[in-house]
Amino acid sequence: MATFVLTDATLTVNAVNLSGWVTSVTLSVEVDDQESTAMGSGFRTRLGGLKEWSLDIDFNADFGASAVDETVYPLLGTNVPITIKATSAATGPTNPIYSGTALVSEYSPIDGGVGDLATTSVSWPGSGVLTRATA
């Protein structure tokens, strides 16, 4: 896959495909910066420390069966498996799948003003390893 427009990302939360309600998704992976500078060079040196990841999702709100609210609300405060891909195409070298366990640490089932589209945004921290697979 070359450069592309993100129009078909897939997201599962606790094995439920919520892709049809996702309007934005960001998967972030970071590593702690540990300074390892010693005398002699005059320049700082650094090592990568602990890694962490998080998932930011914007959903269109839906209270129907197997939709956003019915899936997410009961999971609040628990660690659940998630998967995410850039497109719904088969997993492969140009469409890797990222898998891990996230803590459902927040959820706002109703968020908006009069006349607004009913949406909800969440930011969930990863809990453990995030894997990347191409097969």
Could you provide a short overview of the structure?
Helix content is 4%, strand content 44%. It is mainly beta and 135 residues long.
Strands, total number: 8
* Radius of gyration based on Cα positions: 18 Å
Number of helical segments?
A: 1
Helix content: under 10%
Low-confidence stretches: none
The quaternary state of the protein chains shown equals single chain
Average pLDDT number:
95
Write the layout of secondary structure elements.
Blueprint lengths: L9 E4 L2 E2 L4 E14 L10 E15 L7 H5 L6 E7 L11 E7 L15 E7 L5 E3 L2
Antiparallel strand pairs: 1-2, 1-5, 3-4, 4-7, 5-6, 6-8
Structure description:
With 135 residues, the chain is mostly beta strands. The chain contains one helix and eight strands; from the N terminus they run ββββαββββ. The protein has a five-stranded antiparallel β-sheet with strand order 2-1-5-6-8, with no helix packed on it. A three-stranded antiparallel β-sheet has the order 3-4-7, with no helix packed on it. Strand 1 and strand 2 (16-17) form a beta hairpin. The longest helix is centred in the middle third of the chain and has 5 residues, at 68-72. It is globular, with a radius of gyration of 18 Å. The chain starts with 9 loop residues before the first strand and ends with a strand. The mean pLDDT is 95.
Can you give keywords for this protein?
single chain; 135 residues; mainly beta; three-stranded antiparallel β-sheet; 1 helix; 4% helix
